[in-house]
Amino acid sequence: MIGSRHMASSSLLLSRRDLDFLLHQWLDAEELTRRPRFAEHSRETFDAVLDLSEQIATRHFAPHNKKNDQQEPRFDGERVHTVPEAKQALDAFTKADLLAAPMDEELGGMQLPQLVTTACFSFFQAANVGTSAYVFLTLGNARLLCEHGSREQIDTYVRPMLAGRFFGTMCLSEPQAGSSLADVATRAEPQQDGSYRLFGSKMWISAGDHELAENIVHLVLARIPGGPPGVKGLSLFIVPKHLVGADGSLGERNDVVTAGLNHKMGYRGTTNTLLNFGEGAHTPDGAPGAVAHLVGEPHRGLAYMFHMMNGARIGVGAGAMALGYTGYLKSLDYARERPQGRPVAAKDATAPQVPIVEHADVRRMLLAQKSYVEGALALLLYCSRLVDEQQTAEREDERAHARLLLDVLTPIAKSWPSQWCLEANSLAIQVHGGYGYTREYDVEQHYRDNRLNPIHEGTHGIQALDLLGRKAVMDGGAGLVALGETIGQTVERALDAGGEAAELGAALQESWDRVAKVTARVWGTGDPAKALANATVYLEAVGHVVVAWIWLGQFLATAGHDDAFHRGKRQAARYFFRHELPRTGPQFDLLDSLDETTLQMDPDWF
Questions:
Q1: Which positions are catalytic?
Q2: What is the Rg, in whole angstroms, of the alpha carbon atoms belonging to the chain?
Q3: If we measure between CA atoms, which residue out of 593, 447, 556, 413 comes closest to residue 25?
Q4: Best label site of 53, 279, 448, 585, fewest CB within 10 Å?
Q5: Where is each Acyl-CoA oxidase/dehydrogenase middle domain found (predicted)?
């Protein structure tokens, strides 16, 4: 196929040159090796695992990306069937010990910094987001259990997951509840042996059924009878597809069954299921009900699940970035090779055509993509560095500062790439012209895959409510203050550098001052409904200011370098400040006006 050459080339997944710049020139990944947790690592080990990730992603994940899309999983009423290449790719991933990469050595992990792990895993998301989802969900599941599970639960479920024998899921949504977790109805009935039996249904469960591993470990939110109403009454349970014996052997089938598969416009390689718990299709130990084991304490399930959800939100942002990034590289490659038309000032109609990259509007589209995807990658790596800081920084005040920043940046790290790297995919199609929306080229699939990410793990609107309704005001606005101080430090460096850097720094400071004033303005009403009516506008405006800050940091990191790569970085920063940051002005004006147009719209008027 015409598009196969594009997917087969590792250079068209992500830019390794960009990753090296961000990891080492900007974020100083090697500094982490001075900390006890990462002392066994070096620049060489970081580079080696990046090389390995790129190789496996290119050889095992990328080649079946189109097949995954065209031959999506099917359910025959008893079993779910996936393409054989998916299992081969996942086996290669787990045999390389990449699933355990960031985990403790005691669990067989590499203790790789999250900063480097995110960079490595981005190759797999760019190569094949459908197949890679199975292992990323498993890693999130394992991390949650390591944090909140018992030693027995870690030994029984986490160790086999990190070895690739078991895969994991998260089961939150229900058909009648959707994103409103207060309405979760699945119930967990206590048993005399200390276990529980679950009864209920869960919807939109990614990786909920397959035969890619020996077992599937579901983490399920459910209610114990007599608990408080709403989200305060949710508890978290381990529900394995097959029961696990004390010696680790697989036992009988648990009472959890697939009712059907959801067929989505993208991510088609990832099974997406409606699961029924306790319908009596199976009777473990001779009784109906899915055997379940409580994680931690009763009624604290949502707090525990947020450990996985917050990581998943950053992971969704990373997936959106990776899809946008590979689409950008493929459209850039196409634009350099596709001859069409002549310069606007050309007089000779018989002159040879020029590659379309010579046309200003094509360069505009490519530069926009570059600013979105490279900005998103930098943002996500910065957030990953914060994960490392909150876990390993020497002083408690440093760890607390990292937690504050990560809390306020998480909704942006999820939603900004999901919105703007999707726009990058749209521009990649446009650069390809008529070929862009044909299935022979990869970019139309990248767009369809990426369109799911504004909905995955809390929709765009939910992230907006989280940012403005919780993160911006919690602890007296401490998170927003911490972010403002950190941005201010970058601005100071830019002002000290003088020249163009100082101009960009001044523009960023002006934008951040508006963030602070608008936040105070909308909450000054004392009416949460009015304050949150335009929360999505707030998310988008603040997100653009944050990414402008990220671009200023990259601009400063290019000082003293004048090759094509660094010039391109500076030009992308200029583009973002001149073309993108000004978008926020009208948005802040709208927020400042306390506009109630949407709030006052009567449902009967539609």
A1: 457
A2: 25
A3: 556
A4: 585
A5: 170-272
Q: Which residue has the tokens 């025959």?
A: 76
Contact between 233 and 299 (Cβ < 8 Å): yes
Q: Is 324 helix (H, G, I), strand (E, B) or coil?
A: helix
Please give the Cα distance from 229 to 461 (Å, whole number): 24
Give the amino acid at 314.
I
In DSSP terms, 242 is beta-bridged to 253
CB 240 within 8 A of CB 282: no
What pLDDT digit, counting tens, does each position of 244-288 carry? 999 999 999 999 999 999 999 999 999 999 999 999 999 999 999
Phi, psi at residue 271, to the nearest 5°?
-60, 140
In the three-class reduction of DSSP (H, G, I as helix; E, B as strand; rest coil), residue 386 is classed as helix
Q: List 235's β-bridge partners, or say none.
A: 222
Q: Is the pLDDT of residue 152 over 90?
A: yes
For the stretch 226-244, pLDDT in tens is 999 999 999 999 999 999 9
Please check whether residue 378 is in contact with residue 550, taking contact to mean a CB–CB distance below 8 angstroms. yes
- DSSP per position, 408-433: HHHHHHHHHHHHHHHHHHHHHHHHHG
Size (the chain), residues? 606
Closest CA to 325 of 377, 378, 289: 377
3-state class (DSSP) for residue 217: strand
